[in-house]
């Protein structure tokens, strides 16, 4: 039996294919970035055709670098940027508009109209989510309202909707020639169109956003054979057997399978997930309730999630917009050249504040500036902003579950920054632990596909593969921590009520 699994990790800034061996170690990979399209302030788009082309390219790169063929691959797992919305023509496969990215805020007027009579928590108990531009529903509604002919074609059953996992699955399995139109529970739950207790499309929500049900994919588990890859693909006849939204995939890759297990991913944004088992816990402290995974016909496992919009992308902003660093990796050295932030605090509310505040009226602020502050202090304040925001969602999770985390398992690109990881441990007051295999998002998708195709026997085997990489212990006093959080709270207050 083949002992390799290939993961497609389609993220906000790039697409990767990673081959894993049976022991859970990375064998090879391929990666390509795609364009970030900003037509107007607050608008963020991607080209779906570019993402699909890049996906095919990185699969070839990963296979060639490992000197493997399709006969060596037991299954393919997909993990993806969630909420990002694609609408395409069923008969041609052509997108009717660019993908509207999860960060995009153009649909605030649609959200305001739906929330007007009952507030942003109108459907929270049913969906686990507040009414926000973050999720897919208002993005679909915007496309149907603003793209010529889209409404009529959708009502005639000619258009399909999907998050990026669905777009890739449909294309991999044949596209216009019988492509599978499906998604998994973790991605479906992020549309704001699903009753998460039954995991079915909700007719009231579809009516509220005026979305035809014919556009929507079938909702399936996170680990099963959805179909086989077709056409001239290098992976033809290989089953696609796992789908997990990126944050749930990272949780799965961290072997956080049970109630109380958690992880925090540092990427474009930050995302804390705390597993609540098969119990659906409704947050009263600004977190989201979301499925963590479902294996085949087994029960859905749920989680609380603290979603933070801007962390890694703030470092990109320092590079691309301000030019104070040449590469993202340079930020650690620059920030380490000073002992502290010099009294500067940076609240990166570029698209409002996500968890635990949910304030679309907020905008980014840099406060506490004096002539003493240099670009090094600003770099340090940007890193510290990531840790402060994480502390807020860690506290919210403790309030919702009644249990404090004993350690914080972390993953994602920013975990290579030791200065940030140490400050994260300091400001949360708990150890911060990185895994030995850092590609946890892709690994989680591989695990879900490998479970469905017999590469791995079950969750106990996967738990045994997790190994600790680095550990950072808290090193400041509780009093100093409280003082820093006090100043952070003051900075957050300055960011609010900016947008009328």
Please, could you describe this protein's structure?
There is one protein chain. The protein has 500 residues and is of the alpha+beta class. It has a domain of 245 residues: ATPase, nucleotide binding domain (Nucleotidyltransferase, domain 5, 2-Layer Sandwich), CATH 3.30.420. It is 34% helix and 23% strand. It contains 16 helices and 23 strands. Strands 17-18-16-15-21-22-23 form a seven-stranded mixed beta sheet, sandwiched between helices. It has a six-stranded mixed beta sheet with strand order 3-2-1-5-14-13, with helices on both faces. Strands 4-7 form a two-stranded antiparallel sheet. Helix 9 crosses helix 14. The chain is globular. The model has no long low-confidence stretch (mean pLDDT 93).
Summary, kept brief:
The protein has helices at residues 48-66, 108-115, 124-127, 136-146, 150-155, 164-172, 185-188, 203-209, 246-253, 312-322, 330-336, 375-401, 418-428, 440-452, 459-465, 478-495; strands at residues 4-10, 14-20, 26-33, 45-46, 73-80, 86-89, 99-100, 159-162, 182-184, 194-195, 200-201, 218-220, 223-228, 239-245, 262-266, 270-277, 288-294, 300-308, 345-347, 365-367, 408-411, 432-435, 468-472. It has 500 residues and is of the alpha+beta class.
Secondary structure layout:
Layout lengths: L3 E7 L3 E7 L5 E8 L11 E2 L1 H19 L6 E8 L5 E4 L9 E2 L7 H8 L8 H4 L8 H11 L3 H6 L3 E4 L1 H9 L9 E3 H4 L5 E2 L4 E2 L1 H7 L8 E3 L2 E6 L10 E7 H8 L8 E5 L3 E8 L10 E7 L5 E9 L3 H11 L7 H7 L8 E3 L17 E3 L7 H27 L6 E4 L6 H11 L3 E4 L4 H13 L6 H7 L2 E5 L5 H18 L5
Parallel strand pairs: 1-5, 5-14, 9-12, 15-21, 21-22
Antiparallel strand pairs: 1-2, 2-3, 4-7, 6-8, 10-11, 13-14, 15-16, 16-18, 17-18, 19-20, 22-23
């Amino acid at each position: 039996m083949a002992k390799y699994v290939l993961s497609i990790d389609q993220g906000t800034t790039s697409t990767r294919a990673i081959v894993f061996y049976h022991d859970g170690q990375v064998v090879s990979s391929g990666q390509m970035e795609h364009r970030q399209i900003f037509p107007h302030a607050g608008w963020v788009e991607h080209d779906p055709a570019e993402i699909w082309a890049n996906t095919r390219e990185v699969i070839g790169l990963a296979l060639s670098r490992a000197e493997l063929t399709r006969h060596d691959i037991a299954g393919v797992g997909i993990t993806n940027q969630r909420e990002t919305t694609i609408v395409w023509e069923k008969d041609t496969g052509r997108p009717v508009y660019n993908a509207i990215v999860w960060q995009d805020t153009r649909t605030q007027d649609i959200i305001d109209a739906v929330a007007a009579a009952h507030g942003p928590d109108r459907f929270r108990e049913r969906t686990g989510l507040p009414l926000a531009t973050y999720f897919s529903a208002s993005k679909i509604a915007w496309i149907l309202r603003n793209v010529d002919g889209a409404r009529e074609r959708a009502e005639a059953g000619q258009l399909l909707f999907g998050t990026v996992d669905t777009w890739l699955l449909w294309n991999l399995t044949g596209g216009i020639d019988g492509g599978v139109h499906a998604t998994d529970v973790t991605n479906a739950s992020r549309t704001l169109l699903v009753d998460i207790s039954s995991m079915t499309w909700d007719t009231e929500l579809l009516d509220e956003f005026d979305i035809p049900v014919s556009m929507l994919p079938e909702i399936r588990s996170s680990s099963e054979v959805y179909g086989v890859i077709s056409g001239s693909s290098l992976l033809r006849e290989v089953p696609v057997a796992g789908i997990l939204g990126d944050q749930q995939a990272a949780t799965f890759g961290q072997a956080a399978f049970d109630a109380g297990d958690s992880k925090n991913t540092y990427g474009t944004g930050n995302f804390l997930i705390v597993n609540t088992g098969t119990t659906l816990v409704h947050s009263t402290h600004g977190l989201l309730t979301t499925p963590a995974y479902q294996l085949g016909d087994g029960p859905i496992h749920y989680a609380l999630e603290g979603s933070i919009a801007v962390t890694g992308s703030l470092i990109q902003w320092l590079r691309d917009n301000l030019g104070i660093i040449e590469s993202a990796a340079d930020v650690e050295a620059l920030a380490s050249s000073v002992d502290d932030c010099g009294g500067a605090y940076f609240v990166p509310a570029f698209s409002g504040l996500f968890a635990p505040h949910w304030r679309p009226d907020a905008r980014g602020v840099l406060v506490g500036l004096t002539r003493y502050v240099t670009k090094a202090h600003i770099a340090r304040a940007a890193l510290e902003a990531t840790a402060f925001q994480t502390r807020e969602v860690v506290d919210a999770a403790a309030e919702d579950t009644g249990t404090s985390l004993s350690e914080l398992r972390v993953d994602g690109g920013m975990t290579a920054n030791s200065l940030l990881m140490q400050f994260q441990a300091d400001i949360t007051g708990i150890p911060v632990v990185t895994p030995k295999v850092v590609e946890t998002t892709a690994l989680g998708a591989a695990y879900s596909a490998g479970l469905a195709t017999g590469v791995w026997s079950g969750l106990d085997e996967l738990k045994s593969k997790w190994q600790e990489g680095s550990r950072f212990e808290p090193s400041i006093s509780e009093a100093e921590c409280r003082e820093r959080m006090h100043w952070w709270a003051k900075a957050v207050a300055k960011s609010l009520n900016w947008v009328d």
